[in-house]
Amino acid sequence: MSSLTEKDRPIVQLLLNTGTCPRCILRFCCVGSQTLYRRPYKDLMKDLKDFLKNNQEKEDMVCFDIVDPPCKRIRLEDTEEGSDDLNHNGALQQIPPVNDENTAPENSAVKVCNVCLGILQEFCEVDFVKKVCQKVNSADYQFTSFVFSVSLPPQLSVRECAAWLLVKQEMGKLGLSLAKDDIVQLKEAYKWIIHPQLSEELDVPADGKSLFEVSVVFAHPETEEECHFLATACPDCFKPAKNKQSVFTRMAVIKALEKIKEEDFLKHFPCPPSSPKNLCVALEIQCNNGAVFVAGRYNKYSRNLPQTPWIIDGERKLESSVEELISEHLIAEFKADSFNFSSSGREDVDVRTLGNGRPFAIELVNPRRIHFTAEEMKGLQQTINNSSDKIQVRDLQLVTRSAIGRMKEGEEEKTKTYSALIWTDKAIQKEDIAFLDDVKELKLDQKTPLRVLHRRPLAVRCRIIHTMKAEYIDEHHFRLHLKTQAGTYIKEFVHGDFGRTKPNIGSLLNRTADILELDVESVDVDWPPTLDN
Questions:
Q1: Is the predicted pLDDT of residue 398 greater than 90, yes or no?
Q2: Which residues are catalytic?
Protein backbone atom coordinates (compact mmCIF):
# COMPACT_ATOMS: atom_id res chain seq x y z
CA MET A 1 0.00 0.00 0.00
CA SER A 2 1.51 3.30 -1.04
CA SER A 3 -0.78 5.67 0.86
CA LEU A 4 -3.17 6.00 3.77
CA THR A 5 -6.80 5.18 3.15
CA GLU A 6 -9.97 5.33 5.22
CA LYS A 7 -9.41 1.97 6.88
CA ASP A 8 -6.08 3.29 8.26
CA ARG A 9 -7.85 6.09 10.12
CA PRO A 10 -8.47 4.22 13.42
CA ILE A 11 -4.87 2.97 13.43
CA VAL A 12 -3.51 6.47 12.92
CA GLN A 13 -5.78 7.78 15.68
CA LEU A 14 -4.78 5.00 18.06
CA LEU A 15 -1.02 5.21 17.57
CA LEU A 16 -0.83 8.99 17.47
CA ASN A 17 -2.74 9.15 20.74
CA THR A 18 -0.44 6.63 22.46
CA GLY A 19 2.77 8.49 21.62
CA THR A 20 3.92 6.91 18.37
CA CYS A 21 5.83 9.00 15.85
CA PRO A 22 4.48 9.66 12.32
CA ARG A 23 7.02 7.41 10.60
CA CYS A 24 6.26 4.46 12.87
CA ILE A 25 2.57 5.04 12.18
CA LEU A 26 3.30 4.76 8.45
CA ARG A 27 5.15 1.51 9.17
CA PHE A 28 2.20 0.00 11.02
CA CYS A 29 -0.11 1.13 8.24
CA CYS A 30 2.17 -0.83 5.88
CA VAL A 31 3.01 2.23 3.79
CA GLY A 32 5.75 1.27 1.35
CA SER A 33 6.43 4.66 -0.21
CA GLN A 34 10.05 5.52 0.57
CA THR A 35 9.42 9.12 -0.42
CA LEU A 36 6.81 9.58 2.29
CA TYR A 37 9.22 8.57 5.05
CA ARG A 38 11.70 11.16 3.81
CA ARG A 39 9.28 14.05 4.28
CA PRO A 40 10.22 16.44 7.10
CA TYR A 41 8.99 15.32 10.50
CA LYS A 42 6.79 18.39 11.05
CA ASP A 43 5.20 17.98 7.62
CA LEU A 44 4.38 14.34 8.35
CA MET A 45 2.78 15.25 11.65
CA LYS A 46 0.70 17.94 9.97
CA ASP A 47 -0.29 15.50 7.20
CA LEU A 48 -1.50 12.96 9.75
CA LYS A 49 -3.56 15.55 11.58
CA ASP A 50 -5.09 16.73 8.32
CA PHE A 51 -5.83 13.11 7.48
CA LEU A 52 -7.68 12.64 10.76
CA LYS A 53 -9.70 15.84 10.24
CA ASN A 54 -10.81 14.72 6.81
CA ASN A 55 -14.09 12.81 7.03
CA GLN A 56 -14.58 11.84 3.40
CA GLU A 57 -16.61 8.74 2.79
CA LYS A 58 -14.29 7.56 0.00
CA GLU A 59 -10.82 6.14 0.52
CA ASP A 60 -9.26 9.34 -0.69
CA MET A 61 -5.71 10.41 0.04
CA VAL A 62 -5.25 13.81 1.57
CA CYS A 63 -1.60 14.39 0.91
CA PHE A 64 -0.36 10.83 0.71
CA ASP A 65 -0.60 10.72 -3.05
CA ILE A 66 2.93 9.70 -4.00
CA VAL A 67 2.77 6.52 -6.00
CA ASP A 68 5.25 3.71 -5.30
CA PRO A 69 4.89 -0.02 -5.95
CA PRO A 70 3.05 -1.85 -3.14
CA CYS A 71 5.38 -3.06 -0.43
CA LYS A 72 3.27 -4.65 2.29
CA ARG A 73 -0.15 -6.27 2.45
CA ILE A 74 -3.05 -6.21 4.87
CA ARG A 75 -5.20 -9.31 4.76
CA LEU A 76 -8.96 -9.46 5.32
CA GLU A 77 -10.33 -12.16 7.53
CA ASP A 78 -13.41 -12.83 9.62
CA THR A 79 -13.39 -11.13 12.99
CA GLU A 80 -12.61 -13.71 15.63
CA GLU A 81 -14.72 -14.01 18.73
CA GLY A 82 -13.10 -12.63 21.82
CA SER A 83 -11.42 -9.74 20.01
CA ASP A 84 -12.95 -7.23 22.41
CA ASP A 85 -10.64 -5.28 24.65
CA LEU A 86 -8.95 -7.52 27.20
CA ASN A 87 -9.10 -6.59 30.86
CA HIS A 88 -6.35 -5.24 33.07
CA ASN A 89 -5.30 -8.73 34.21
CA GLY A 90 -2.84 -9.12 31.46
CA ALA A 91 -4.19 -7.41 28.48
CA LEU A 92 -4.57 -4.46 26.23
CA GLN A 93 -5.43 -1.21 27.92
CA GLN A 94 -8.47 0.77 26.89
CA ILE A 95 -7.50 3.70 24.65
CA PRO A 96 -9.76 6.74 24.73
CA PRO A 97 -11.09 7.91 21.37
CA VAL A 98 -8.96 10.51 19.65
CA ASN A 99 -10.23 13.88 18.64
CA ASP A 100 -8.54 17.10 17.67
CA GLU A 101 -7.95 17.99 21.30
CA ASN A 102 -6.07 14.75 21.92
CA THR A 103 -3.37 15.50 19.37
CA ALA A 104 -0.30 17.40 20.52
CA PRO A 105 -0.18 21.10 19.62
CA GLU A 106 1.90 21.87 16.57
CA ASN A 107 4.46 23.96 18.43
CA SER A 108 4.99 21.57 21.35
CA ALA A 109 8.31 19.77 21.85
CA VAL A 110 8.66 16.48 20.00
CA LYS A 111 8.09 13.57 22.37
CA VAL A 112 10.27 10.49 22.05
CA CYS A 113 8.38 7.81 20.13
CA ASN A 114 7.20 4.91 22.29
CA VAL A 115 8.07 2.41 19.54
CA CYS A 116 11.33 3.49 17.84
CA LEU A 117 12.70 5.43 20.86
CA GLY A 118 13.67 8.32 18.61
CA ILE A 119 15.42 6.40 15.80
CA LEU A 120 12.96 7.70 13.19
CA GLN A 121 12.92 11.15 14.77
CA GLU A 122 16.10 12.89 15.87
CA PHE A 123 18.44 10.42 14.18
CA CYS A 124 16.92 11.14 10.77
CA GLU A 125 17.68 14.83 10.97
CA VAL A 126 20.39 16.70 9.07
CA ASP A 127 22.50 17.33 12.18
CA PHE A 128 22.95 13.63 12.87
CA VAL A 129 23.68 12.88 9.21
CA LYS A 130 26.39 15.54 9.24
CA LYS A 131 27.83 14.04 12.42
CA VAL A 132 28.09 10.63 10.74
CA CYS A 133 29.70 12.13 7.63
CA GLN A 134 32.21 14.09 9.70
CA LYS A 135 33.25 10.84 11.34
CA VAL A 136 33.61 9.18 7.92
CA ASN A 137 35.61 12.04 6.42
CA SER A 138 37.92 12.35 9.42
CA ALA A 139 38.76 8.63 9.16
CA ASP A 140 40.43 9.37 5.78
CA TYR A 141 39.25 6.31 3.83
CA GLN A 142 39.33 5.85 0.07
CA PHE A 143 35.91 4.71 -1.20
CA THR A 144 33.69 5.11 -4.24
CA SER A 145 30.43 3.88 -2.68
CA PHE A 146 29.17 2.81 0.73
CA VAL A 147 26.86 0.37 2.47
CA PHE A 148 25.10 1.53 5.61
CA SER A 149 24.40 -0.77 8.54
CA VAL A 150 22.68 -0.07 11.81
CA SER A 151 22.50 -1.92 15.12
CA LEU A 152 19.40 -1.20 17.20
CA PRO A 153 18.66 -1.69 20.93
CA PRO A 154 17.07 -5.12 21.48
CA GLN A 155 14.02 -3.76 23.30
CA LEU A 156 12.81 -2.09 20.10
CA SER A 157 11.60 -5.55 19.10
CA VAL A 158 9.71 -5.78 22.39
CA ARG A 159 8.09 -2.38 21.96
CA GLU A 160 7.21 -3.15 18.35
CA CYS A 161 5.57 -6.39 19.46
CA ALA A 162 3.46 -4.49 22.00
CA ALA A 163 2.41 -1.91 19.39
CA TRP A 164 1.61 -4.68 16.92
CA LEU A 165 -0.69 -6.43 19.42
CA LEU A 166 -2.46 -3.12 19.96
CA VAL A 167 -2.94 -2.50 16.24
CA LYS A 168 -3.94 -6.10 15.61
CA GLN A 169 -6.71 -5.79 18.17
CA GLU A 170 -7.99 -2.55 16.63
CA MET A 171 -7.98 -4.03 13.14
CA GLY A 172 -9.78 -7.11 14.40
CA LYS A 173 -12.72 -4.88 15.24
CA LEU A 174 -12.86 -3.93 11.55
CA GLY A 175 -12.64 -7.50 10.33
CA LEU A 176 -9.05 -7.03 9.22
CA SER A 177 -5.82 -8.69 10.24
CA LEU A 178 -2.23 -7.49 10.33
CA ALA A 179 0.57 -10.03 10.16
CA LYS A 180 3.74 -9.06 11.99
CA ASP A 181 5.75 -9.52 8.79
CA ASP A 182 3.57 -6.99 6.96
CA ILE A 183 4.86 -4.12 9.11
CA VAL A 184 7.63 -2.16 7.43
CA GLN A 185 10.80 -3.03 9.32
CA LEU A 186 12.34 -0.22 11.37
CA LYS A 187 15.80 -0.74 9.85
CA GLU A 188 14.35 -0.68 6.37
CA ALA A 189 12.47 2.57 6.95
CA TYR A 190 15.52 4.13 8.59
CA LYS A 191 17.73 3.29 5.63
CA TRP A 192 15.13 4.69 3.21
CA ILE A 193 15.48 8.01 5.02
CA ILE A 194 19.22 7.99 5.70
CA HIS A 195 20.64 6.62 2.43
CA PRO A 196 19.85 9.64 0.22
CA GLN A 197 21.14 12.06 2.86
CA LEU A 198 24.40 10.19 3.38
CA SER A 199 24.85 9.76 -0.36
CA GLU A 200 24.42 13.49 -0.98
CA GLU A 201 26.70 14.50 1.90
CA LEU A 202 29.46 11.98 1.02
CA ASP A 203 29.00 12.50 -2.72
CA VAL A 204 29.05 8.75 -3.48
CA PRO A 205 26.19 6.29 -4.09
CA ALA A 206 24.83 3.81 -1.58
CA ASP A 207 25.49 0.27 -2.82
CA GLY A 208 24.53 -2.92 -1.00
CA LYS A 209 27.59 -4.65 -2.48
CA SER A 210 30.07 -1.94 -1.51
CA LEU A 211 33.13 -3.00 0.48
CA PHE A 212 33.10 0.25 2.45
CA GLU A 213 30.72 0.07 5.41
CA VAL A 214 29.43 2.90 7.54
CA SER A 215 27.81 1.54 10.67
CA VAL A 216 25.96 3.12 13.58
CA VAL A 217 25.39 1.31 16.86
CA PHE A 218 22.45 2.61 18.87
CA ALA A 219 21.96 1.84 22.54
CA HIS A 220 19.39 2.60 25.21
CA PRO A 221 19.87 2.74 28.99
CA GLU A 222 16.66 0.80 29.73
CA THR A 223 17.36 -2.26 27.57
CA GLU A 224 17.86 -4.74 30.41
CA GLU A 225 14.99 -3.31 32.44
CA GLU A 226 12.53 -3.70 29.56
CA CYS A 227 13.75 -7.13 28.41
CA HIS A 228 14.18 -8.73 31.83
CA PHE A 229 10.70 -10.32 31.86
CA LEU A 230 11.62 -12.31 28.75
CA ALA A 231 14.56 -13.91 30.56
CA THR A 232 12.17 -15.04 33.28
CA ALA A 233 9.58 -16.36 30.84
CA CYS A 234 12.07 -17.92 28.36
CA PRO A 235 15.34 -18.59 30.25
CA ASP A 236 16.59 -20.98 27.55
CA CYS A 237 16.82 -18.10 25.08
CA PHE A 238 19.29 -16.11 27.17
CA LYS A 239 22.63 -17.73 27.77
CA PRO A 240 25.89 -15.93 28.52
CA ALA A 241 28.18 -15.79 25.49
CA LYS A 242 31.80 -14.83 25.02
CA ASN A 243 32.42 -11.28 23.83
CA LYS A 244 28.89 -10.24 24.79
CA GLN A 245 28.41 -7.74 27.58
CA SER A 246 24.73 -8.60 28.00
CA VAL A 247 22.60 -11.69 27.47
CA PHE A 248 19.95 -9.45 25.94
CA THR A 249 21.13 -9.59 22.35
CA ARG A 250 18.82 -8.82 19.45
CA MET A 251 18.64 -12.44 18.31
CA ALA A 252 17.98 -13.73 21.84
CA VAL A 253 15.14 -11.23 22.31
CA ILE A 254 13.58 -12.11 18.93
CA LYS A 255 13.81 -15.81 19.78
CA ALA A 256 12.07 -15.21 23.11
CA LEU A 257 9.33 -13.12 21.47
CA GLU A 258 8.64 -15.97 19.06
CA LYS A 259 8.39 -18.39 21.97
CA ILE A 260 6.38 -16.43 24.56
CA LYS A 261 2.59 -16.62 24.47
CA GLU A 262 0.69 -13.41 23.78
CA GLU A 263 -1.19 -13.56 27.08
CA ASP A 264 2.07 -13.96 29.00
CA PHE A 265 3.62 -11.07 27.11
CA LEU A 266 0.67 -8.81 27.93
CA LYS A 267 0.93 -9.65 31.62
CA HIS A 268 4.45 -8.30 31.84
CA PHE A 269 4.75 -5.51 29.26
CA PRO A 270 2.43 -2.50 28.78
CA CYS A 271 0.36 -2.40 25.64
CA PRO A 272 0.49 0.22 24.21
CA PRO A 273 4.16 0.60 25.13
CA SER A 274 4.74 3.32 27.69
CA SER A 275 6.43 6.61 26.91
CA PRO A 276 10.20 6.16 27.24
CA LYS A 277 12.22 8.00 29.84
CA ASN A 278 15.18 8.41 27.52
CA LEU A 279 16.09 8.80 23.88
CA CYS A 280 18.36 6.28 22.16
CA VAL A 281 22.01 7.23 21.96
CA ALA A 282 24.38 6.70 19.04
CA LEU A 283 26.97 4.66 20.93
CA GLU A 284 29.36 4.16 18.02
CA ILE A 285 29.82 5.48 14.50
CA GLN A 286 32.30 3.26 12.71
CA CYS A 287 33.82 2.84 9.27
CA ASN A 288 35.30 -0.29 7.81
CA ASN A 289 36.78 -1.04 4.40
CA GLY A 290 36.71 -4.54 3.00
CA ALA A 291 40.04 -6.34 2.96
CA VAL A 292 42.55 -5.80 0.16
CA PHE A 293 44.72 -8.70 -0.99
CA VAL A 294 48.31 -8.39 -2.17
CA ALA A 295 50.22 -11.30 -3.68
CA GLY A 296 53.72 -11.95 -4.94
CA ARG A 297 56.69 -14.30 -4.60
CA TYR A 298 59.47 -14.04 -2.06
CA ASN A 299 63.07 -15.24 -1.95
CA LYS A 300 64.65 -15.91 1.41
CA TYR A 301 68.45 -15.74 1.54
CA SER A 302 69.04 -16.13 5.27
CA ARG A 303 69.43 -19.38 7.22
CA ASN A 304 68.45 -17.62 10.40
CA LEU A 305 65.04 -16.21 9.46
CA PRO A 306 61.67 -17.89 10.13
CA GLN A 307 58.76 -17.45 7.75
CA THR A 308 56.50 -16.25 10.57
CA PRO A 309 57.36 -14.82 14.02
CA TRP A 310 59.12 -17.50 16.09
CA ILE A 311 57.68 -17.27 19.58
CA ILE A 312 57.91 -20.10 22.13
CA ASP A 313 56.17 -19.85 25.53
CA GLY A 314 55.68 -16.13 24.96
CA GLU A 315 59.37 -15.53 24.28
CA ARG A 316 60.54 -14.31 20.88
CA LYS A 317 63.45 -16.35 19.56
CA LEU A 318 64.47 -14.30 16.51
CA GLU A 319 64.08 -10.60 15.87
CA SER A 320 62.20 -10.76 12.57
CA SER A 321 60.50 -12.98 9.97
CA VAL A 322 59.70 -13.08 6.27
CA GLU A 323 56.10 -12.19 7.08
CA GLU A 324 57.07 -9.09 9.04
CA LEU A 325 59.72 -7.84 6.62
CA ILE A 326 57.13 -7.80 3.84
CA SER A 327 53.98 -6.80 5.72
CA GLU A 328 55.35 -3.83 7.68
CA HIS A 329 55.67 -1.83 4.46
CA LEU A 330 52.26 -2.92 3.15
CA ILE A 331 50.55 -2.03 6.43
CA ALA A 332 52.10 1.45 6.31
CA GLU A 333 51.22 2.18 2.68
CA PHE A 334 47.69 0.76 2.76
CA LYS A 335 47.09 2.23 6.25
CA ALA A 336 45.54 -1.05 7.36
CA ASP A 337 44.63 -2.14 10.89
CA SER A 338 46.23 -5.58 10.65
CA PHE A 339 47.15 -8.33 8.21
CA ASN A 340 46.96 -12.09 7.61
CA PHE A 341 49.84 -13.82 5.85
CA SER A 342 49.58 -17.04 3.84
CA SER A 343 51.88 -18.83 1.41
CA SER A 344 52.24 -21.91 -0.75
CA GLY A 345 53.93 -24.05 1.89
CA ARG A 346 56.66 -22.92 4.24
CA GLU A 347 60.37 -23.44 4.74
CA ASP A 348 62.22 -24.02 8.01
CA VAL A 349 64.14 -21.20 9.65
CA ASP A 350 67.49 -22.58 8.33
CA VAL A 351 66.27 -23.20 4.77
CA ARG A 352 66.73 -20.73 1.93
CA THR A 353 64.16 -20.17 -0.82
CA LEU A 354 65.81 -19.45 -4.15
CA GLY A 355 64.83 -19.49 -7.84
CA ASN A 356 61.56 -17.72 -8.66
CA GLY A 357 60.60 -17.70 -4.99
CA ARG A 358 57.60 -18.91 -3.00
CA PRO A 359 54.07 -17.57 -3.75
CA PHE A 360 52.50 -15.61 -0.91
CA ALA A 361 49.42 -13.53 -0.24
CA ILE A 362 48.67 -10.94 2.43
CA GLU A 363 45.19 -9.89 3.50
CA LEU A 364 45.21 -6.27 4.63
CA VAL A 365 42.39 -5.70 7.10
CA ASN A 366 40.41 -2.45 7.05
CA PRO A 367 42.76 -0.47 4.78
CA ARG A 368 42.27 3.29 4.51
CA ARG A 369 43.99 3.40 1.12
CA ILE A 370 42.87 0.91 -1.54
CA HIS A 371 43.78 2.40 -4.93
CA PHE A 372 47.30 1.73 -6.22
CA THR A 373 48.57 1.94 -9.79
CA ALA A 374 50.91 -0.68 -11.24
CA GLU A 375 53.76 1.82 -10.95
CA GLU A 376 52.98 2.45 -7.29
CA MET A 377 52.98 -1.29 -6.60
CA LYS A 378 56.35 -1.56 -8.35
CA GLY A 379 57.68 1.23 -6.15
CA LEU A 380 56.33 -0.51 -3.04
CA GLN A 381 58.08 -3.71 -4.12
CA GLN A 382 61.34 -1.81 -4.46
CA THR A 383 60.90 -0.29 -1.01
CA ILE A 384 60.55 -3.78 0.50
CA ASN A 385 63.60 -5.07 -1.38
CA ASN A 386 65.75 -2.10 -0.35
CA SER A 387 64.88 -2.56 3.32
CA SER A 388 66.58 -5.93 3.86
CA ASP A 389 69.20 -8.21 2.34
CA LYS A 390 67.50 -11.25 3.88
CA ILE A 391 64.53 -11.31 1.50
CA GLN A 392 63.42 -10.07 -1.92
CA VAL A 393 59.94 -9.97 -3.41
CA ARG A 394 58.82 -10.04 -7.03
CA ASP A 395 55.54 -9.88 -8.97
CA LEU A 396 53.91 -7.79 -6.21
CA GLN A 397 50.29 -7.11 -7.24
CA LEU A 398 46.73 -6.61 -6.07
CA VAL A 399 44.57 -9.76 -6.34
CA THR A 400 41.06 -10.85 -5.41
CA ARG A 401 40.14 -13.06 -2.47
CA SER A 402 39.01 -15.85 -4.81
CA ALA A 403 42.34 -15.85 -6.67
CA ILE A 404 44.18 -16.87 -3.50
CA GLY A 405 42.47 -20.25 -3.74
CA ARG A 406 44.68 -21.05 -6.72
CA MET A 407 47.76 -20.72 -4.51
CA LYS A 408 46.33 -23.11 -1.93
CA GLU A 409 45.32 -25.64 -4.57
CA GLY A 410 48.88 -25.70 -5.89
CA GLU A 411 50.24 -26.14 -2.37
CA GLU A 412 49.17 -29.79 -2.35
CA GLU A 413 49.00 -30.64 -6.04
CA LYS A 414 52.20 -29.20 -7.49
CA THR A 415 55.86 -30.24 -7.23
CA LYS A 416 58.80 -28.62 -5.51
CA THR A 417 62.52 -28.77 -6.26
CA TYR A 418 65.20 -28.85 -3.56
CA SER A 419 68.96 -28.91 -3.21
CA ALA A 420 70.39 -30.69 -0.14
CA LEU A 421 73.98 -30.86 1.13
CA ILE A 422 74.35 -34.33 2.66
CA TRP A 423 76.96 -35.83 5.01
CA THR A 424 77.63 -39.56 5.45
CA ASP A 425 79.47 -41.26 8.29
CA LYS A 426 81.20 -43.77 6.02
CA ALA A 427 83.35 -42.71 3.09
CA ILE A 428 81.67 -42.69 -0.32
CA GLN A 429 82.83 -42.71 -3.89
CA LYS A 430 81.06 -41.37 -6.97
CA GLU A 431 79.87 -44.83 -7.91
CA ASP A 432 78.25 -45.28 -4.48
CA ILE A 433 75.72 -42.52 -5.16
CA ALA A 434 75.42 -42.78 -8.97
CA PHE A 435 72.39 -45.11 -8.73
CA LEU A 436 70.31 -42.30 -7.16
CA ASP A 437 70.11 -40.60 -10.57
CA ASP A 438 68.17 -43.59 -11.90
CA VAL A 439 65.60 -43.70 -9.10
CA LYS A 440 62.23 -42.45 -10.35
CA GLU A 441 58.87 -42.04 -8.60
CA LEU A 442 60.15 -43.36 -5.28
CA LYS A 443 57.28 -43.84 -2.83
CA LEU A 444 57.84 -42.87 0.79
CA ASP A 445 55.89 -43.57 3.95
CA GLN A 446 56.46 -40.60 6.26
CA LYS A 447 55.22 -40.73 9.81
CA THR A 448 54.72 -37.24 11.24
CA PRO A 449 58.27 -36.01 12.05
CA LEU A 450 59.23 -35.73 15.70
CA ARG A 451 60.15 -32.07 15.24
CA VAL A 452 56.59 -31.08 14.18
CA LEU A 453 54.63 -33.62 16.22
CA HIS A 454 53.69 -30.89 18.73
CA ARG A 455 51.69 -29.04 16.05
CA ARG A 456 50.73 -31.73 13.52
CA PRO A 457 48.53 -34.81 14.06
CA LEU A 458 50.21 -38.19 14.13
CA ALA A 459 49.74 -39.85 10.74
CA VAL A 460 51.60 -41.76 8.05
CA ARG A 461 51.66 -39.80 4.80
CA CYS A 462 52.53 -41.27 1.43
CA ARG A 463 54.81 -38.96 -0.57
CA ILE A 464 56.70 -39.34 -3.86
CA ILE A 465 60.26 -38.40 -4.84
CA HIS A 466 59.88 -37.90 -8.58
CA THR A 467 63.57 -37.56 -9.52
CA MET A 468 67.00 -37.25 -7.89
CA LYS A 469 70.43 -36.17 -9.14
CA ALA A 470 73.56 -36.58 -6.98
CA GLU A 471 76.70 -34.41 -7.23
CA TYR A 472 79.78 -35.89 -5.54
CA ILE A 473 81.81 -33.44 -3.42
CA ASP A 474 84.21 -35.54 -1.31
CA GLU A 475 84.31 -38.79 0.65
CA HIS A 476 81.75 -37.62 3.18
CA HIS A 477 79.71 -35.01 1.29
CA PHE A 478 77.50 -34.83 -1.77
CA ARG A 479 74.75 -32.55 -3.03
CA LEU A 480 71.39 -34.05 -3.93
CA HIS A 481 68.89 -32.29 -6.21
CA LEU A 482 65.32 -33.57 -5.73
CA LYS A 483 62.00 -33.01 -7.41
CA THR A 484 59.26 -34.06 -5.01
CA GLN A 485 55.58 -34.08 -4.34
CA ALA A 486 54.48 -31.03 -2.35
CA GLY A 487 54.41 -31.77 1.36
CA THR A 488 57.43 -34.08 1.41
CA TYR A 489 59.64 -33.75 4.49
CA ILE A 490 63.11 -33.53 2.89
CA LYS A 491 65.21 -33.51 6.06
CA GLU A 492 63.51 -36.69 7.26
CA PHE A 493 64.00 -38.33 3.85
CA VAL A 494 67.74 -37.79 4.27
CA HIS A 495 68.32 -38.92 7.87
CA GLY A 496 65.30 -41.19 8.32
CA ASP A 497 63.98 -39.60 11.53
CA PHE A 498 64.79 -42.73 13.57
CA GLY A 499 63.06 -44.93 11.04
CA ARG A 500 59.89 -42.84 10.79
CA THR A 501 60.51 -42.14 7.07
CA LYS A 502 60.99 -45.24 4.90
CA PRO A 503 62.93 -45.56 2.67
CA ASN A 504 65.46 -42.78 3.29
CA ILE A 505 68.90 -41.80 1.96
CA GLY A 506 70.57 -43.54 4.90
CA SER A 507 68.83 -46.83 4.20
CA LEU A 508 69.40 -46.53 0.43
CA LEU A 509 73.14 -45.97 0.95
CA ASN A 510 73.33 -48.41 3.87
CA ARG A 511 74.99 -45.89 6.14
CA THR A 512 74.17 -42.97 8.41
CA ALA A 513 73.30 -39.80 6.54
CA ASP A 514 72.44 -36.32 7.70
CA ILE A 515 71.52 -33.05 6.06
CA LEU A 516 73.75 -29.99 6.49
CA GLU A 517 71.99 -27.46 4.25
CA LEU A 518 68.71 -27.33 2.38
CA ASP A 519 67.53 -24.90 -0.29
CA VAL A 520 64.14 -24.64 -1.98
CA GLU A 521 65.01 -24.13 -5.65
CA SER A 522 61.49 -23.85 -7.05
CA VAL A 523 57.85 -24.00 -6.02
CA ASP A 524 55.99 -25.08 -9.13
CA VAL A 525 52.79 -23.10 -8.63
CA ASP A 526 51.79 -20.96 -11.61
CA TRP A 527 50.54 -18.08 -9.45
CA PRO A 528 50.52 -15.14 -9.09
CA PRO A 529 50.94 -14.03 -12.70
CA THR A 530 54.47 -13.02 -13.63
CA LEU A 531 54.90 -9.27 -14.07
CA ASP A 532 57.41 -7.33 -16.13
CA ASN A 533 59.47 -6.05 -13.22
A1: yes
A2: 348
